[in-house]
Design goal:
By secondary structure, the chain is α/β, with parallel strands linked by helices. It is built from 14 helices and 15 strands.
């Protein structure tokens, strides 16, 4: 059973956007993008509003939308689960930094099968989405699930309809473990699936999976918990079957070399380690280096600094993995060096930190 704390934490994950605080509050900071981190951004924003009185307006429209909006300068920050390469960042005058880590999980509508009871491998999951495995009692699935009563139900695949960092992480993993998937479908925020239905946002995918018997989809872990969905164990790089949780996400992130990765452009899929969840990823914030409204940029950075320093417990309640202190230090040093006001003065300084 899920803890009451987790249920309360997920209560805000209802709409596609939120404004922290009362309906009358004037939102000072505006962001848009990834649905993957939406649950924790909502929790952080509410807590920050209570502490400081400052409001955050975040529209959960998908990573593709977040990238477009920050490039167009219609928001103060964009959010994406797909890290942009250093060349694209430089071309657009953007700074990118990781905010929190979490896991993408396969979820299925299989009455009678409990969460974590179904076992899958990466290649089998890829073959399901390639349309090669069409029913749940296929021999490839049955071999992995001896003793589990699998239905002869036809598999209905569910994917994201919008440009999505969750799709980017999911297809990045499947492209690693299946050469055929890499060749025929590939890795991107939006791909051409051979069959199935598509839903908007993690919540749209979760909704379709819940409604369609025999469906399989992929969502950020908090959405699987919120909706009490049947999620699968996955076989990781070492051959171990693992369940998604904060410990397995942390295991996947343990070896991440952020310090030597230009632009923090790092993927965490199919990582080594016996306890690693294979579809783990970070989610990123995008901001312009040259800020025409430095006072707004400073408030945005104050919010993210507060989240780094004081938001760990809230993140862990939703099974996200906070960024290590050493990475936070790297990120904030980058803020000092890269984010400038029109006169070339640093927007972020030690004096900006809220204790």
């Amino acid at each position: 059973m899920y803890k009451q704390l987790k249920q309360a934490a997920m209560a805000s994950v209802v709409a596609l956007g939120f404004i922290a605080g009362s309906a009358q509050a004037s939102a000072l900071m505006n962001g848009a993008g990834a649905t993957f981190p939406y649950p924790i951004y909502a929790k952080w924003a509410d807590a920050y509003k209570t502490k400081t009185g400052m409001s955050l307006n975040y529209q959960s429209i998908g990573s593709g939308g977040g990238i477009k909006q920050i490039k167009a300068k219609t928001v103060d920050f964009g959010a994406s689960d797909k890290p942009l390469p250093i060349e694209e960042l430089n071309e657009s005058g953007l700074l990118q930094f990781p905010m929190v880590m979490g896991g993408v999980v396969p979820v299925a509508n299989l009455p009678g099968i409990k969460p974590g009871e179904l076992k899958l491998t990466g290649p089998v999951l890829a073959d399901i989405y390639l349309g090669k495995i069409k029913t749940w009692d296929d021999v490839a699935i049955a071999k992995l699930n001896r003793g589990v009563k699998l239905p002869s139900e036809k598999i209905a695949t569910v994917a994201r309809a919008d440009g999505s960092g969750t799709t980017y992480i999911f297809t990045h993993y499947l492209s690693k473990v299946s050469p055929e998937f890499k060749e025929k479908i590939g890795n991107n925020t939006s791909v051409s699936w051979p069959s199935g239905v598509s839903g908007k946002g993690n919540e749209g995918v979760a909704s379709y999976v819940q409604r369609i018997k025999g469906a399989i989809g992929y969502v950020e872990y908090a959405y699987a918990l919120q909706n009490k969905m049947t999620y699968a164990q996955l076989q990781n790089k070492t051959g171990k079957f693992v369940s998604p949780d904060s410990a397995s996400f942390q295991a996947a992130a343990a070896g991440a070399d952020w310090a030597n990765t230009p632009g923090f452009n790092l993927m965490l899929t199919d990582q080594p380690g016996a306890g690693s969840w294979p579809i783990t990823g970070a989610t990123f914030i995008l901001m312009h280096k040259n800020q025409s409204k430095p006072e707004v940029a400073q408030e945005v950075l104050k919010f993210f600094d507060w989240a780094y320093r004081h938001g760990d417990k809230l993140a862990e309640q939703l099974d996200y993995v906070p960024m290590p202190a050493a990475v936070v230090k790297l990120v904030e040093e980058t803020w000092k060096k890269e984010i400038k006001d029109p006169s070339g003065k640093a927007v972020w300084t030690e004096a900006s930190i809220q204790k």
